[in-house]
Structures are given as structure tokens and as C-alpha cells.
Design a protein that fits this description.
Order of helices and strands: HHHEEEEEEHHHEHEEEE
CATH architecture: Alpha-Beta Complex
CATH class: Alpha Beta
Strand content: 15-25%
Radius of gyration: 19 Å
Number of helices: 7
Oligomer: single chain
Largest sheet: 4 strands, mixed
Distance between the termini: 39 Å
Amino acid sequence: MRVSPRWLLLLLAPLACSPREDDARLRQDWGECVRNTDCASGRICRSRKCVALPPSPTGAALVPPEGMVHVPAGEFLMGANRGLPLERPQVNSRTQDFFIDVREVTLEAWLACQQGGHCPAPLCDQDPATPGRPVTCVTRPGAAAYCAFVHKRLPTEEEWEKAARGTDARTFPWGEESPTCERAVHEGCTRRDGPEPTGLRPSGAGPFGTLDQAGNVWEWTGSSRPPWNKERDPRQLGASHAPPPGLELPPSKPGDKPHYIVRGGSYLDPPLSLRTSNRLLLVEDFHSRALGFRCAADPR
């Protein structure tokens, strides 16, 4: 299935306009939390539950594995007060210490996992003749399987955004300057049949040293959001007011699926889509030539 991410904003407009993730009742139905900021101090959101924040390791434990960088624990500004509905509002968020891959996962790395029987084949033809290209056309479960194979995991969207923008709320990983083809792979910078090899634009590095977090391919995160159902949304039922006391909501539809956050923009997208706060929602079995991933890990 090939769908240009540029058109996804139109396809997903009903999702973007829904207030679902900020509604307390929907959050109660969905789980304890959808963001770290839904949890009390000293706790963090993992798999929709607030869990105790592990103590920050020190010393040798914070030395990142090869090919990864360390992002320190602490607060940062997440989201934006301008832009698309899914980007708003800007909030104070926080993460614990974590490591994240410098580059997107490549086809060569994926094939090692596939040959070991741990990863499925990509869902579209790849280009083995160009070394270092990111693997694409993988679903979110496939991306998670690869990360588990290398003893890592998918980053949460808070971790992804903090790695991309640091603690100064920068618009792009390198700062405020507009994207150029020297900094990022976006529309007009490359051929349209696929992304470029990873890591070729060091001038587009993020504040902690990550590469290609703007452009090249969108990237899966491990963060999900509940499916939006307008018949079930209390704010829709109440015409923008709280639902009447005792109102029983209809059950979710059998086909409802959670949606997962993807970040970063791609080689098919215009420069403004590469903002660090830009987000899209996709079902987990979606795949595209413009969609890949990178992994994260916890210090041990």
C-alpha cells in the first residue's frame, strides 16, 4: 500500500480534529494515561499505565551502546501552540534517561533479523543496491520485533521528540533555520522512489547527535492513542459540553483499532512537515515506502 504521507493529513483530518486524548472520560476507558504528564510526579506512562519512574542510573550505565546516544532525564517542552491540531498545545513533559539510535534502522540490519527468523519480510520491494538505506514498508509490530531482536524497544513519542528538539523547544533538530537539502531529505531533494542512505547530512543533526530525525522517512514510535469514534466521544455527544450524568456510552465498534504516533516527515514531504512537533496517527499495520523507524533502550 503506497500512500504519500503528504496526503495523510487530509485522510486523517477527523482524527486530528477530535479532542479524544484530552478527555478524562475517554482516558479512563482507554487506560490510566496517554502521556507522561498524565501521571503524578515520580511516575511515567508505559503501555497506558502509570508506573514508578526507575531511579536514574549513573556512571558506566549511562555510556550509550555503539550507534546510540544518551538523552538525559528531565523536563522539556513538547508540542506547539501553533500548527496542526495534533501538535497543540505545547506542554511541559519529561523523560527518564534513555538511549536512542543515531540513525534509522537500515535494510542490511533488518535482513539480519529476517534471516534469523525474528522479522518478517518488508511489504514492498527494497533497494539492496544502495547500502545504508533505511528499511521501509514495515508495520509497527514488525518494527517492534526488530527492536526486541537487538535488545531494544521503540521510543515513546516523548523520547523521540526530546531527542529531536532538546530542551530549547527548537522547531527543527538543528535549530530554527528552514530546512535545506544539505540538512534534511525532503520533497525535491532526492528521487521519488525511496529514501536516501542514512546519516549523510551531519549539518542536520539534533541536539544530542541523532541524524535524519527530520525527513528521509517517517518513524514509528511505541506510543498509541485510542481509536476515535464520534458516537462514543462524550464531547460530541454533549455538543461540546460534559455528557449528562449517568449517560452510558455505546461500546466500541469491533473494528476499532488504536492508532500509533509516527514522527519526522519524509523525502516526499514539504519542508514545513519536518517540524519536531509534527505528528501523524496510523494504524499499526500501515506500511509505506516513506515510513521506517529507529530504536531506543533503557540504561541498565
